[in-house]
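Lecture notes, part 5. Sequence design as translation. It can be helpful to think of inverse folding as translation between two languages: the language of shapes and the language of residues. The source text, in structure tokens, appears below.
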């Protein structure tokens, strides 16, 4: 050996793990050992076989990391069952085709081990979907029930807005079984259609009624304006009240037209009633002097009460009544008070006269005399009974007779006074 020659390094010892699952032949072909047998994964034409195995072992380690990461993601629930199954299939293909040296069976076993996790996740997902489908069905049934309620009701102001909200809620819900979903949608859609059709019909009828009301009110306005300058205060006042009753019964017209017609109707009313108030104010001023006269007559009439002598009082009141009628009208504000007070005096005078007349009735006098006679006879009979009871020593009968006699004498005293009034 010359000084320029460097002795070749001896081959590195083979890694037992690598040599267990792979080898390099004399031609530099690298094999991996699988359950089905050896499979060539590459070629290492020159160099140390142990380096070749170490190189392919590193590639195996990278594949093992890929399997490990997939395991972790599946266990953590980071993937859906479908995504997990797809990822496992891809990695399994990578393992089966990988150009590596290592325990491929162990990697495949780890992939097999996650399959139950995927299956359980799939069952949970299925159960969750079923639960969501039940919840979605209930929610849609509730939406349908409310929509049908609106379709049968008359909430024309808020119903359309609420149905739009229900439709937005429907769209936000997931689909359920096609047959059930289609059936519920048919009911929901039919309810919306029914409501819309009834709402259009309602407003069409409302518009028609408002047109009729407008025509009616236009005629009422014309009549009111024709009466505005009338001076027949009583008759025209009643006519305006009748027009107002008919105005209210006519119902509303279109808003703008209704407001314009009301302004005209009110203006006609104001013209008439303002003129009537002015005329009445002038009359009240004229009647003020009459009120002073009647006030004095009323004071004299009320001074006749209470009635002590019906005949004299009647004559005095008759004179006052004639002067009362001749005094004329008083202001409207005084009419009721004056009439009520004067009528009260008149009624008291008439009642006193009626009482006096009834007292002078021969029939009444005869009844009073008969009552006196009967009481006197009753007392005489009771006195006889008292004497007998006393003679018999019947104390109880004596007390009873005495009590009856005392009562009859009180009644007799009252009857005699009544009879004396007829004298």
């Amino acid at each position: 050996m010359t000084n320029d020659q460097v002795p070749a390094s001896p081959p590195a010892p083979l890694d037992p793990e690598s040599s267990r699952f792979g080898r390099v032949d004399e031609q530099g072909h690298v094999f991996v050992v699988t359950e089905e047998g050896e499979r060539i994964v590459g070629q290492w034409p020159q160099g140390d076989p142990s380096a070749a195995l170490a190189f392919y072992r590193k590639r195996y380690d990278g594949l093992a990391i890929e399997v490990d990461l997939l395991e972790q993601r599946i266990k953590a629930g980071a993937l859906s069952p479908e995504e997990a199954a797809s990822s496992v299939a891809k990695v399994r293909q990578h393992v089966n085709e990988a150009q590596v040296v290592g325990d491929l069976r162990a990697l495949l076993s780890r992939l097999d081990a996650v399959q139950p996790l995927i299956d359980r996740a799939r069952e949970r997902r299925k159960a969750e979907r079923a639960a969501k489908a039940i919840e979605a069905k209930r929610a849609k049934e509730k939406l349908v029930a409310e929509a049908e309620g609106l379709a049968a009701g008359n909430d024309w102001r808020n119903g359309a807005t609420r149905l739009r909200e229900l439709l937005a809620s429907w769209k936000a819900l997931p689909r359920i079984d096609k047959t059930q979903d289609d059936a519920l949608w048919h009911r929901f859609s039919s309810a919306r259609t029914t409501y819309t059709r009834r709402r259009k019909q309602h407003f069409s009828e409302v518009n028609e009624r408002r047109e009729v009301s407008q025509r009616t009110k236009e005629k009422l306005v014309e009549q009111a304006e024709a009466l505005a300058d009338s001076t027949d205060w009583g008759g025209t006042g009643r006519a305006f009240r009748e027009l107002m009753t008919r105005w209210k019964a006519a119902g509303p017209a279109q808003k703008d037209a209704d407001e314009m017609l009301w302004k005209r109707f009110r203006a006609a009313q104001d013209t008439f009633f303002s003129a009537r108030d002015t005329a009445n104010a002038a009359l009240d001023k004229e009647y003020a002097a009459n009120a002073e006269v009647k006030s004095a007559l009323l004071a004299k009439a009320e001074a006749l009460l209470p009635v002590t002598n019906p005949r004299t009082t009647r004559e005095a009141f008759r004179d006052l009544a004639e002067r009362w009628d001749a005094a004329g009208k008083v202001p409207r504000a005084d009419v009721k008070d004056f009439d009520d007070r004067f009528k009260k005096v008149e009624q008291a005078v008439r009642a006193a006269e009626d009482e006096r007349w009834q007292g002078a009735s021969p029939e009444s006098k005869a009844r009073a005399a008969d009552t006196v006679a009967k009481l006197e006879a009753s007392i005489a009979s009771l006195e006889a009974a008292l004497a007998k009871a006393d003679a018999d020593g019947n104390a109880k009968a004596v007390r009873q007779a005495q009590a009856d006699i005392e009562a009859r004498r009180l009644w007799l005293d009252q009857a005699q006074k009544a009879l004396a009034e007829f004298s």
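The translated text above is only one of many valid answers, since several sequences can fold into similar shapes. Residues 284-357 form one domain.
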